[in-house]
Each structure stands twice: as C-alpha cells, then as structure tokens.
Amino acid sequence: MLDNFLTYLVTEKRASEHTVIAYQKDLQDFFDFMAINKLEELKEVNHQSVRGWMVALIEEGISNRSVNRKLSTLRTFYKWCLKEEVVDKNPMLLVKGPKTSKRLPEFVKVEELDNFNISEKVGAQLEMEDMLMVEVFYQTGMRLSELINLKFTDIQNNSLKVLGKRNKERIIPVSEDLMKGLNELKQTRDNLRIMPYVFTTKKGNKLYPKFVYRRINKYLSCVTNLDKRSPHVLRHTFATHMLNNGAGLETIKELLGHANLSATQVYTHNSFEEINKIYKQAHPRGGHNKK
To answer: Of 70, 143, 215, 236, which one is the catalytic site residue?
Structure first.
C-alpha cells in the first residue's frame, strides 16, 4: 500500500526524490505510532487518532511548522486512499493543524555580497567551482535539488534551463561573467557522457544535499551574521533583491518556479521594509530630520 502511494507520487504527481523520501518517513512514523501493519488497521484510523499523533509530536518538541508538514503528508495520502477506494472515509477532514507564526524570509544584504573579498576572507578555501555554485544560486534563485541536477546541456545562450517541481521547465537568464565561468568549467571535464552534471564532488561524483549545504554555509559564514546560512537563503536573497530593484511579482514567480503567486508574495514584506527606510530618508517629513 505504501509502495503504491510512493509510486503514485513519482509517476503522477512528478514529485522529486527529496519529496518522496520525506513523505515515506512521515507516513512510516505515523504507521509506527498507530501500529498499522495491515489494511484493516488503516481503515480504523479516525480524526481522534490523528490528533493523538499530533499531540505526541508536539510533546516531543517537534515544531508546529514541522507538525503541519506531516499533517499535509497525511492529507495527500488519504486523498489518494479515497481515490483508490482503500478507505471509505477521510479522517483528515476533521483535523486542524497547530497555528504557526509567519516567518519572513532571511536574505543577505547587497552590500555584504558586493564588499566581499574572496582572497582576503576565504583564500583557497573556496575553489572556482564553489564560487560558481554560489553565483548560480544567487543569480537564478534555483532550488537545491535543481542545482544538483543541473547539466551542461542545460546551459544555453546566456541562460540556464531548469527542471523544477513536477518536471516543469523554466529558462533563467544569467550574466555573461557567470556564463563564461560555466563554459570554462566545462572545459575542465574529461568525459561529459559519464558525468553530465555541472557541479560534482571533489571525487567527480554527483552532488548530494549535505555537500552543497556545507559549501554554501562556509561561504555565507564569511559574508553575513545570519543564523541561517543555507542554499535557500540565497534563493530568498535573489527574490528580495529582484523585488527591491523593481522586478514585478509575476516575473519573480516565473523565475522561482512557484506554482501560484501567493508563494511569491511573502517577499513583499521584506520589500516594504526597504521602501519604508527609503521613505524616511527621502521625504521631508519622513522622520529622518526629527530631533
């Protein structure tokens, strides 16, 4: 049953490998908690049972945000179960997740990136490939999984072809300097048929998430005091800087590969802070000259 659901995620929902693994873990945790080993036991699950699991997670110290993500997994799973007539009722209809505070995306300031001197602060710690990785994240806003799967065949004329969620393609323009660097990197590779991916480990193998995270974390540790220093911070930085410099939400939505505009609108909060600062500095009665 679980295997069939995971196959459905891959074949019909076009879910990424990362998403499938997360769904599998969430569901296995739920099955273990409920001691579900056969179909009859799954049919006996009701909304009180799910609420009991939710309370147990919170008591274990799991954040409300993570609990809601697990509940989202269950909702998707039970919708599939109803569709496949595995169960005749959906217990998730009466389950409401815990409240979560809306978190604003953290981003690196423009001056922190512009004033960064690689040779002074990092030296040989970051090689050309690492710096190109940082630039690709910052100039495109692509996701971690998208960068890992980026191939040399995806490099086009001053743009990159990105395969996003649900296998949706998008084209993202990049600077001439970045394009030059990527082409130079391509020249260093011996056999592109064996390893077609743009970025690899030191041993020439395909990247994995923890490897990329460590590289980006090392770089961001040199330029910012943010608590979070991950590839996703560079994605937030890309979107915030674009918005602050006049790009429209629809354009940013397409570049980020968001399915709907509501996911992109979170960046308007950061943009308003920038507008508010400029207003106070520029307007005669904005407050900058008050004693």
So the answer is: 143
Which residue out of 23, 78, 219, 267 is catalytically annotated? 267
Give catalytic status of residue 235 as yes or no. yes
pLDDT tens figures, 182-202: 998 898 887 777 889 999 988
List pLDDT tens digits, range 138-171: 999 999 999 999 999 999 888 999 998 878 899 9
Among 43, 89, 151, 258, the one annotated catalytic: 258
> Which residue among 151, 218, 232, 280 is the active-site one?
232
Considering 89, 165, 218, 280, which one is annotated as catalytic? Answer: 165
Known catalytic membership, residue 258: yes
Task: Answer whether residue 291 shows pLDDT above 60.
Answer: no
Comma-separated ranges of CATH 1.10.443.10 domains in the chain: 110-281
Is this model's pTM higher than 0.90 or not? no
Classify 110-281 by CATH class: mainly alpha
Q: In this model, does residue 283 exceed pLDDT 80?
A: no
165 is a catalytic site residue: yes
Superfamily grouping for domain 2-94: Tyrosine recombinase, N-terminal domain (1.10.150.130)
DSSP-derived secondary structure for the chain: -HHHHHHHHHHTS---HHHHHHHHHHHHHHHHHHT--SHHHHHT--HHHHHHHHHHHHHTT--HHHHHHHHHHHHHHHHHHHHTTS-S--GGGG--PPP-PPPPPP---HHHHHT--HHHHTGGGS-HHHHHHHHHHHHH---HHHHHT-BGGGEETTEEEEE-GGG-EEEEE--HHHHHHHHHHHHT-S-TTT--BSSB-TTSPBP-HHHHHHHHHHHHHHH---S--SHHHHHHHHHHHHHHTT--HHHHHHHHT-SSGGGTTTHHHHHHHHHHHHHHHHSTTSSTT--
Domain with CATH 1.10.150.130 in the chain: 2-94
